[in-house]
């Protein structure tokens, strides 16, 4: 199996993983809620109570939809294999940029949500922010599961960003043999992989 | 100026930017403090009161040191230009991995700190977390300046990660002409840039 084919398979597999994991994370966090009654006062915990969780649901939902669209593009590209490829560089550049943006957005949203959740779980006594997970245990567990899926989706998106960087920048090889520093690999790297 | 030389110049410039901005962010956040007296009770606000700011200072401090080391490597590579290049792939792979890790770490730490700071500034009334910036205005402004530098350092690190991906993956080009999809660019891309 050639290097290019391996990259294609890895790309499709990673896009499926990002799509499934991001959708799972958004669904787990977005649908969780818990209602408790304190002295006849009913209070409901939802993800909208914490801005970082809203951001997480939005980012992961958008990433799932984007991955689906990209999978459709991959399928279309495979179907019309013999078509023109004059736009290959434009397509590779836009796919690369979008994949990078998705990877950084997922990592940032996950980091912000993790940060908020740690404060929610342990509190921040220096600022008199009290932990809330003692009251809403079931909701916190649900958010924890969602965060685990979000971290997995983020890691898949990071790997995918590397694969799409590979797909783009190898187009600019070929001139590597001109200078000494790149010559060691460009000669055989493409074949030994 | 050739493509490879442009990439080298961009790499050195971006490493300098990451080093300076990350050091600035860590210094601004790390050295800020404000003492206030409430009814004969003295309270001091420091970055250690907020876990996310500790993470920010640690991540950006480490990134600044790492960038310095990488600049030293660039200088050494420029000095011994005629040396052996059998390890080019190993070096490019490890530089690529480290640069990616730094970019994601800076983005994640900055996102977490931003999230914490927004809660510190506006509070989270749903959870009875009160804003603290009304009490420690000068400290909050200092942290805000640090966060601006942190965001700039993160963006420079993201660009740097892309340049180092370019430096690595172009080594695997050259085989691009075998398949139709890459042929459109690999022939002239390296020369027209």
TrEMBL record, chains A, B:
Belongs to the Casparian strip membrane proteins (CASP) family. It comes from the Eukaryota. The keyword Hydrolase does not apply. It is found in: Cell membrane. The keyword Cell membrane applies. The chain crosses the membrane at residues 12-32, 52-69, 90-114, 147-169. Homodimer and heterodimers. This is CASP-like protein. It is a multi-pass membrane protein. Its main location: membrane. Keywords: Cell membrane, Membrane, Transmembrane, Transmembrane helix. Coiled coil: none annotated. Residues 5-154 form the Casparian strip membrane protein domain. One of its GO terms (cellular component) is plasma membrane.
């Amino acid at each position: 199996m050639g290097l290019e084919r391996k990259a294609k398979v890895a790309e499709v597999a990673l896009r499926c993983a990002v799509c499934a994991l991001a959708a799972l994370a958004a669904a787990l966090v977005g649908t969780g809620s818990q209602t408790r009654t304190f002295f006849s006062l009913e209070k409901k915990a939802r993800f909208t109570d914490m801005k970082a969780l809203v951001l997480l649901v939005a980012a992961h939902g958008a990433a799932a939809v984007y991955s689906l669209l990209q999978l459709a593009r991959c399928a279309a590209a495979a179907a019309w294999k013999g078509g023109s490829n004059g736009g290959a560089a434009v397509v590779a550049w836009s796919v690369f940029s979008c994949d990078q943006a998705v990877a950084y957005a997922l990592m940032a949203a996950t980091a912000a949500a993790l940060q908020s959740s740690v404060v929610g779980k342990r509190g921040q006594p220096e600022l008199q922010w009290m932990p809330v997970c003692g009251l809403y245990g079931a909701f916190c567990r649900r958010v924890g599961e969602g965060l685990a899926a979000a971290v997995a989706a983020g890691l898949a998106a990071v790997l995918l960003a590397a694969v799409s960087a590979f797909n783009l920048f190898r187009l600019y090889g070929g001139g590597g043999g001109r200078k000494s520093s790149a010559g060691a690999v460009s000669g055989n790297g493409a074949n030994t992989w």
